Amino acid sequence: MRALQLANLTLLVLFPLSWFAPLLRAGLLPLFGLDEVTVVSGLQSLWEADVALALLVTFLAIFAPMMKTIGLALIHAGLLVPRVLPVLSWLGKLAMADVFLIALYVVVIKSIGFGTVETAWGLYLFSACVLASILISTLTERHLKQQTS
């Protein structure tokens, strides 16, 4: 359980890092008016263009993963009841929707054939954080079930 706790606490650092890391690099045809897109720069552009979509993406990319990570940290510390694990797991899966949106943007732009878009290391970091979060919550739930059995 200690390893899960440490891995989860590491996500408290890695998630914010992934928000500022480059997700995509656009050549010839900049995305959102930028040559390099991060979660934060993309959100800034969305807030100017479409507030409803910006609210959704902000929740999916920032609030859902952090709420889940903090919730898991509280469970690991014994400060939150394990009954909330299904809700936390659901929150973490919402962040995968954000990864899907980014991947969809890449596919659409590449299929247009005008300009270039390449994925950057931040997309892999953000995706790895989301997947690690899902794995940590699954293993935590399994561990807690074994303790009560």
| Count of alpha and pi helical runs | 5
Report the helical percentage: over 70%
Structural category: mainly alpha
Global geometry: elongated
Count of discrete domains: 1
Average pLDDT, rounded to a whole number, is 85
Q: Order of helices and strands, N to C?
A: HEEHHHEH
Q: Please indicate the percent range of residues in DSSP E strands (runs of 2 or more).
A: 5-15%
Largest sheet report: 3 strands, antiparallel
**Any idea what the CATH architecture is?**
Up-down Bundle
Task: Report how far the terminal alpha carbons are from each other.
Answer: 16 Å
Total strands: the figure is 3
Radius of gyration of CA atoms, rounded to a whole number: 17 Å
Spatial strand order of the main sheet:
2-1-3
Low-pLDDT runs: none
CATH T-level topology: Butyryl-CoA Dehydrogenase, subunit A, domain 3
CATH class: Mainly Alpha
Question: Would you mind describing this structure in some detail?
Answer:
The protein is mainly alpha-helical and 149 residues long. It is 75% helix and 7% strand. The chain has helices at 2-20, 39-49, 51-76, 85-112, 121-148, and strands at residues 24-27, 36-37, 116-119. It has a three-stranded antiparallel sheet. Helix 1 (2-20) runs antiparallel to helix 5 and helix 3 crosses helix 5 (121-148).
